[in-house]
Amino acid sequence: MYFTARFQQNLDWTDHTLILPAVAVGNVGQLTVDLLLSTLEVELVGRLHSTAFLPLVGPDPFHAEPKGIVTSCQVYHCLAHKLVIVQQRAPVAMNRRREFRTSLIQWIQEHHFKQVILLSSCFAHFRTDKDLLQIPLKFLCTPDLTESVGSYLHSSLGWRSLERRDPFTYNEDSAGVLHMPGSGITRSLFEECSTKKVHLVVLLLYCSEGDNVPDAFTMADQLNNWLQLISGSDSEKNKSWKVPVSWNLMFGNHPPKNIY
């Protein structure tokens, strides 16, 4: 499989956090990344090219007067917060998932990121009664981050880690599997990162297909509670996120004339 990363300059990201979305139910990860890219001061620094991506090209999603185009997968740099943010706008072909996952992990390892955060989602109807009393977010940490990052997320932010379940009864079972239907490559990527000692944290939001904008705000707010990307009280945070102009076309509005 062809996979390459093209950047405008050589950058040292050893002290940076990589944030990337999983193509999953409701596209919550990608919508959240859109909020990050629209709100933070970021610079487009490159693109990921792979024969695994379904081809895509479109107008600039962040400016009313387009300043360029978007492709299947682009890479942005936020110097202020030492973030590298990947936006994947096209899904991976079903028969290329394993190859893509291997190539993606290899790219991550080559750049020696401090940690990787995967924004993902899964079907809400698999929540338990206990889950209904909490925020619809759970997390997973690879073994090397369990004591440090995992303990902080649980004790300081009140997040709960995703439990293992029996694959037939769905009851909690420490010998069971990580049950996250609708999350795309999230589980396989997490398991491979665990094996290859890649520092990965998965944020998993329970949701249903539909208007997933509120879910994106929920995930962005929770991520902000951790990384402190924007300021403001809890009641003000949604007002602080800048909504991309492309969201005006989310539900079938007339397409912009400049795409023709």
UniProtKB/TrEMBL annotation:
SUPFAM superfamilies: Cgl1923-like. The gene is LOC106466520. Chaperone protein which promotes assembly of the 20S proteasome as part of a heterodimer with PSMG1. Belongs to the PSMG2 family. This is Proteasome assembly chaperone 2. The keyword Chaperone applies. It comes from Limulus polyphemus. It holds the Pfam family PAC2. Forms a heterodimer with PSMG1. Keywords: Chaperone. The keyword Chaperone applies. InterPro entries: Proteasome_assmbl_chaperone_2, Proteasome_assmbl_chp_2_euk, PSMG2_sf. The lineage of its organism: Eukaryota, Metazoa, Ecdysozoa, Arthropoda, Chelicerata. It comes from the Eukaryota.
